Amino acid sequence: MAQPTNENKMGVMPENKLLLNMALPMIMSMLVQACYNIVDSFFVSKLSEDALNAVSLAFPVQNLMIAVAVGTGVGINALLSRSLGQKDQKRVNSTAMNGLMLEMVSGLVFTILGLTCARMFYTVQTDIPGIIRYGTDYLTIIAGCSMGIFVSVASERLVQATGRTVYAMVIQGTGSVINLILDPLLIFGLFGFPRLEVAGAAVATVAGQIVGGMVGLFLCLTRNPEIQMSLKGMRPDRETIQGIYSVGLPSIIMQSIGSVMVFGMNQILIAFTSTATAVFGIYFKLQSFIFMPIFGLTNGVVPIVAYNYGARKPERIIKTIKLSMAYAIGIMTVGLALFQLFPDVFLGLFSAEGEDPAALLSIGVPALRTISYCFVAAGFGIVGSSVFQALGHGGLSLAVSVVRQLVFLLPSAFLLARTTGSLDAVWWSFPFAEIFSMILSALFLYKVYQKEIAPLKNPM
């Protein structure tokens, strides 16, 4: 089979230019996604409190879908980029087609669950008719038509792995823009569209995902020549599937842990006041604008590190890691400054009708300022996790996430709540946990350097 005659840009382009070339499109698409998350909640909240609660209660299922899709995609990305660096065209094609197959099988599983279990999911949580009705409509559509998100994510990862992150931006951006446009039209029945209310938000979401997936497949088939896709290549290959999930499975578990952490933290906070849980929810919406650029950056880091690991170019790996650390810490420093200087302004954006602004500010201002002390350490940890994944050590990323969220964050928040009786003290669990996990990440990075990167300096 013919091999590509030219070296991929990930092996020759200057590291700083390459990192920016790979990461900036992903950062832009991540910011679009962050905007959507806020706008979607804003529109639904205008219907009723039951409608907003119905969408909020669906978060664990949606988060699990994203965790499975993105986690599998991380495994595809890492193995595919490494195979490209090794010039193993057969492994490249096998990884692409087996990865797409795994995503589609995962989508089918969630489709079946969505069509059969949506109502039961709500009835075990609440007996409020409005929430059950809205929630059943929403989750049946979101999960029942979930194939779009799995195909879309798979396509994004296939073009990212070859360095074409602009196409990944196009895939995600197409879905997000369609979603943003259809949301108000279908929720409120504007300009002749049917008024579907909460179901309209779900239809808008899956429509964007399906169109994004179709665009992604088109780009993979016509604009990604380093991967040769065919139905024949979709034959399951045990070694390839193991290689994908060796990195992907820890990533799936790691992202799913976030749901457990949010649930546990809400139980701790609601013991003080429901306003505290509202502040916690607002924080997650706001922090996405700071964290999403870092996730976009690391989406560029993974294929670069994986490719150059396969190509045995340790100097490029080391320089990429140093540059990404510097950018991440810089972005997080800006975020820290914004949260310290303007917490009241940010909180004012989410002041709903009937809500006591004074109570929100009295709890929210110290909360945002305290939690933001974790930003710089978090930036270091996120980049470190992406390096572990790129080098096939997804278990280390999982270990850091488990320790940060379940071993340190939740227990320390619980102990601070019980021993001090102060809500302000609970927020300190975030910077404490992040600093501890940063130290752990640094130790793991040193271990990975000694085991994987340093030996590359010795010629074979």
Low-confidence spans: pLDDT under 50, at least 5 residues?
Answer: 1-5
Helix content: over 70%
Strand residue percentage: under 5%
Shape: globular
Gap between N and C termini? 25 Å
Number of domains: 2
Please identify the structural class as seen in this structure. mainly alpha
**Mean pLDDT, as a whole number?**
85
Q: Radius of gyration over alpha carbons?
A: 22 Å
Task: Please give the number of β-strands.
Answer: 0
- The SSE string, one letter per element, is HHHHHHHHHHHHHHHHHH
Main sheet: strands, sense, barrel = none
Number of helices: 18
Overview of the molecule:
By secondary structure, this protein is mainly alpha-helical. The protein has helices spanning 9-12, 15-45, 49-57, 59-85, 89-123, 129-144, 147-161, 165-188, 198-222, 238-270, 274-310, 314-341, 343-348, 357-371, 375-390, 394-420, 423-426, 429-453. The protein folds into two domains: 46-236, no CATH class; 247-460, no CATH class. It has 18 helices and no strands.
Report a brief summary of the structure.
The chain has 460 residues and is mostly helical. The chain has helices spanning 9-12, 15-45, 49-57, 59-85, 89-123, 129-144, 147-161, 165-188, 198-222, 238-270, 274-310, 314-341, 343-348, 357-371, 375-390, 394-420, 423-426, 429-453.
